[in-house]
Structures are given as structure tokens and as C-alpha cells.
Design goal:
heterodimer; A: alpha+beta; 6-stranded mixed sheet; B: alpha+beta; 9 helices; 19 strands; 20% helix; globular
């Protein structure tokens, strides 16, 4: 696994979400996976409760089903800004990554605002000939979500 | 050209129980009176869970109405709730979310308070080398932190600013005492975690949302489709005698096409979950109900929705917004499987919830429509104009009940 490959995965992931190609999003994860968006307060106290959690690609697909078929929300755009992407360790065949993430949302007639500021703890593995996230845990500092967290981080 | 009136007339519509004027959600003077008569008046306010401060010296900060407070275990069997405002010069001295300490100390001039709020230390009180110091009439006994009345009821900490508030059980009334103790039955509770969101809408819209079963079976396609809350299911709406507290009760059904779901434009008979573990529901409470959503006026919603148990605290921030704090909890003796089940089901709730995100969004949209039109009013006549318990969910009766009580307390 090269640094270039990891960068390509990261950029493809961000582009997929920024461009709202939601149906492709679960494919970035292994069949069994851990996906969490969790407030810092819970994470640091070792509490299990997440704002969004999934344990399989299927659960991520269900998130997409919710976003596209069952949920009601005002239209908006999210843009994700990643910095400090780095390899922090190896685990089995995979690599542990760390990066900061900022998500900015823009709603109709409104100024852009930060919806989430946090750090991503990722475990990336090679799976079916491509790199995938086996774990992605986004720990967010933001104390008060500006109403809703609609799209994934 | 006629001049516009400077202040909107706070007139209640002639159809008194059938309409709610929009100025109740926007007028700063009305909001100021709400703080005084409702939030700081004779009502019990949700503070937190006893399990959040297990050891003497453990404290946690929160806000009641707009006033910051500290919930602290001041003795092995005592939880105190004191205002987070130094009696000296008003500093909100405790800034952390939580901690443990032997005293509560203001950083400005190091005034020190015991855990129960008593003032125990004033540096240089008697001056320095016979110069300065507090005057002889200064008695520390008069300058403790403002202490609220507190009741800890089956694991939940309640506080009130008013001496006139009746005991908590009387405040709920016997009917709601039974609803409350169905879930808060005396077993020890444990915290699973928190979610916090700011919803830019008047706080009463959140109370209305959980007093309104009519919307739940329409707006929430997830609920409707998977049969968690739907108009064809056996259900009920109940209120206390004052009309201020409410409960929505329902029983889970199946994902089926029938005469009722056929009339729901949003019902999706073909929808399947790729990983249905989120809907692995077990019946854990007595009776056949799977949902019991209690609104305890004015500060909290007590949620039992399948196996997801939360308190949703309302912290008003002016007429146009409130903070909404979700505490997800479990029983302390839950198995790991049960904790996992509750954690999974939490995906339905909170700011990213399959269901609850709909509510935050729609009440923000309500405020956007309401705020520029204070002369207009909402129509709340679904189910008639009566204010009475019902055995169905096609009603806005509990909204009518809350406003009848609200008008009486507010003198409006």
C-alpha cells in the first residue's frame, strides 16, 4: 500500500460524498466494517453512543436508503476539507490513518457554516483489488450540531 | 397611508382552542414572561441522571431555562443543584462539562463554595495588615450559591426554582406517575452517551412535535414503512389533568399494505433494509405498547421508542431557538447484547437520526414560516376542539391541552 494509493482513496472518497454520489459510498467500505461519527465527549469517556453508526456495508446502504427514500430535510451541499492525512501505524495487512476533517454546509439563501470539525481514525485494507475502509471513526469536537447532520463524514 | 402598529397586538384568536397565534413563537416579551412564569416558575425541570454523578464531588454543568447550573453529588445520598453564578460578581465560574472536586471555586477572586453551595472561603475577608476586607455586616451564611429544590426520582434528577412547585409525583399526577414508572421503575440507570444539536425554532415547537401523533405517521416515512408508528396501529394520546404533560402510546405493526397504508403517499411497501439488525426489537416492558413518548412540561421529552431510551432536554435560547440535548441511557444491569441493541437503534434518533432529523428540520421550517407572520395563526383542530385523551393518533388534542395551560400560566 503506497502513500499515493492512500491519497487516491481519500480524494475519491471525499469527491464521492461532495458530489453526492451516495449509492457509491458504501463501496468504500469492507463488507464487515465499523463506521462511526461520534461526539468527542462520548469517545473520550469510552461511551458507545454514536451520532451515526454502522457495522456493515449493508447498514451504510440503509443510510443511503434513508437519505434518498425516507428522510425529509432541506436541500444543502456539504464540502469536506481534509488536512494532516498521515499513516500512524500498521495493523495486520492494513494501515491506520489519521486526518482532520472539516465539513462545511451551505443551505439555500444561507451563508456557509461549519457543520462538523473533527478527526478521522481510519483503518484501510486491500479488499477485492482496491483499498477500502475497514474502520472509519470520525470523532467530532463540535459541541452543538447546527440542527441536523444529514450527510456522512 | 395608515401607519403600521408599532407592537403586534397579542390577541388570541376567537377560535380559542382551535388556533395558536404565531406571536407565541416570536415575541421577545412573551418569551421573557415564559422564562419567569414557566421556566423559573412552579415547574420541575429536568437536570440529568443520577448516574452521571456517582461519587461525592462529581459534578456536571447544564442549563435550566437560560440559567447555568451545576448538578453535584454533595454527599453520598444527596445531589445538589446550584446556580453556576458566583455570588460575588456573577461569574459563571464552572466552565467544564463535568469534573470532580472537593469545592467549587470561582477563578476571579477565589471565592470557595462547599459542594452544597455554602460559601466557605473569601480571600482577604478580614483584610491584609488591617487594611481593606469585607465590612463587619458580611456574613458568609448569606452568600452561598443559589440552591434549587431537588428531587431524585428513580434515577432522574429534577430541580425547580420555585417554592410553590408541588412534590414531583403530584406535579406529574397519578396517571403520569404510572407512565413514568413504567420505564423509570427504580432500576439503576447508566449513560450510553450524548448528542447535542441547536434547533433554530421556538422551544414550544419541540413540545408540540412530541404531542402530535398525526405527523409521526406521515412525515416519518421510516416509521411508517417499518410499522413503528402508524395510523393503523393501536395507539393513544393522554394528558395530565392540567393538559401540560402528554404521552403518545403506540404498538408496533408490520410492513403491510392495508386500507390505511394505501392512503399514505409516502408508504413504501417495497423498501427493505440491507442489514435489519437495527430493527431487532425485543419487548421489554409490561403491556403490548412499543412506544411511550412522554412530554414533561416544559423541559424534557422522555423517550421509550422500541428499545431506545433517552431523555431529550430542551434548553431555550431566546424565542427563536433552543439547544436539544439527548442523553441515551440503558439499565445498569443490561447485558452487552441489550446495550448494543440500544446503541444500534440510536441511529433512528438524534441530529442524524433516520426519524428525528426529520423533526429538527421540519420545526426549523416551521419557525421560518411563522416568524415573519405574527398576526397569523396555526390551525390545530385535527380531532376536533376537545381536550381529552383519545385512543387514536389522528388528533392534535395534546397541543390544544398545552396551550390552554400555557395561556392560564402566562395570563394571555
Amino acid at each position: 500500500m503506497t502513500k499515493d494509493e492512500i491519497e487516491a482513496l481519500t480524494f475519491a472518497y471525499l469527491e464521492c460524498l461532495d458530489e453526492l454520489r451516495l449509492a457509491e459510498w458504501p463501496e468504500f467500505f469492507t463488507e464487515t466494517c465499523i463506521y462511526r461519527v461520534i461526539p468527542r465527549e462520548n469517545f473520550e469517556a469510552g461511551r458507545s453512543l454514536c451520532t451515526i453508526s454502522a457495522e456493515s456495508r449493508g447498514m451504510l446502504q440503509d443510510r443511503v436508503t434513508g437519505l434518498t427514500r425516507t428522510q425529509m430535510y432541506a436541500p444543502r451541499h456539504y464540502r469536506r476539507f481534509v488536512s494532516g492525512l498521515r499513516i500512524v501505524g500498521a495493523e495486520g495487512e492494513g494501515l491506520r490513518l489519521r486526518s482532520n476533517i472539516l465539513m462545511v454546509q451551505t443551505l439555500v439563501d444561507r451563508q456557509s457554516e461549519i457543520v462538523l470539525s473533527g478527526v478521522a481514525h481510519d483503518l484501510v485494507v486491500r479488499d477485492e483489488g482496491r483499498l477500502r475502509y475497514r474502520e472509519r471513526v470520525v470523532v467530532f469536537d463540535s459541541e452543538m450540531v447546527p440542527n441536523s447532520l444529514i450527510y456522512p463524514a | 397611508m395608515d401607519a403600521l402598529p408599532l407592537a403586534p397586538a397579542r390577541l388570541w384568536p376567537a377560535d380559542a382552542d382551535g388556533r395558536v397565534p404565531y406571536w407565541v413563537y416570536t415575541d421577545p416579551e412573551v418569551y421573557a414572561r415564559e422564562l419567569e412564569r414557566i421556566w423559573y416558575g412552579p415547574h420541575w425541570l429536568y437536570v440529568g441522571l443520577e448516574a452521571e454523578v456517582p461519587e461525592v464531588g462529581d459534578w456536571r454543568t447544564t442549563t435550566l431555562g437560560e440559567r447555568p447550573v451545576i448538578m453535584v453529588r454533595s454527599a453520598p445520598d444527596t445531589i445538589s443543584v446550584v446556580e453556576n453564578r458566583c455570588r460575588h460578581r456573577g461569574v459563571k465560574f464552572c466552565q467544564a462539562r463535568q469534573g470532580r472536586s472537593e469545592q467549587l471555586i470561582c477563578p476571579y477572586h477565589q471565592w470557595a463554595y462547599a459542594l452544597d453551595g455554602a460559601l466557605i472561603g473569601v480571600p482577604f475577608r478580614r483584610g491584609v495588615r488591617k487594611q481593606g476586607g469585607m465590612p463587619p455586616d458580611f456574613d458568609p451564611k448569606d452568600w452561598g450559591l443559589n440552591r434549587l429544590r431537588v428531587e431524585v426520582v428513580n434515577g432522574v434528577v429534577w430541580a425547580t426554582f420555585s417554592d410553590a412547585t408541588p412534590p414531583f409525583r403530584d406535579y406529574l399526577g397519578e396517571k403520569f406517575w404510572r407512565h413514568y414508572t413504567r420505564v423509570y421503575d427504580g432500576r439503576k440507570l447508566a449513560v450510553l452517551g450524548y448528542n447535542r444539536q441547536h434547533i433554530p425554532a421556538n422551544w414550544k415547537l419541540m413540545q408540540e412535535n412530541i404531542k402530535d401523533p398525526y405527523h409521526a405517521g406521515l412525515l416519518h416515512v421510516f416509521f411508517v414503512t417499518f410499522g413503528l408508528f402508524r395510523a393503523d396501529q393501536k395507539s393513544a394520546v393522554e394528558m395530565d389533568e392540567e393538559g401540560r404533560h402528554g404521552i403518545l402510546i403506540s404498538r408496533k405493526g408490520e410492513q403491510e399494505v392495508n386500507d390505511v397504508t394505501a392512503g399514505m403517499p409516502n408508504f413504501q411497501a417495497d423498501l427493505k433494509l440491507a442489514d435489519p439488525r437495527i430493527m431487532d426489537v425485543v419487548q421489554e416492558f409490561p403491556g403490548e405498547e412499543t412506544v411511550g413518548m412522554i412530554t414533561v412540561f416544559p423541559s424534557v421529552i422522555l423517550q421509550q421508542q422500541i428499545n431506545s431510551l433517552t431523555t431529550r432536554q430542551i434548553i431555550p435560547k431566546g424565542p427563536g431557538g433552543f439547544d436539544f440535548v439527548w442523553t441515551h441511557w440503558c439499565y445498569a444491569d443490561d447485558t452487552p447484547e441489550m446495550r448494543l441493541r440500544r446503541t444500534r437503534q440510536a441511529n433512528l434518533f438524534g441530529p442524524a437520526g433516520f426519524v428525528s432529523a426529520d423533526d429538527g428540520e421540519v420545526i426549523e421550517m416551521s419557525q421560518q414560516g411563522i416568524a415573519p407572520a405574527p398576526w397569523d395563526s396555526a390551525l390545530v383542530t385535527m380531532g376536533g376542539r376537545e381536550i381529552a385523551d383519545t385512543q387514536h393518533m389522528v388528533t392534535e388534542t395534546a397541543i390544544r391541552g398545552m396551550y390552554r395551560y400555557w395561556r392560564r400560566v402566562m395570563g394571555l
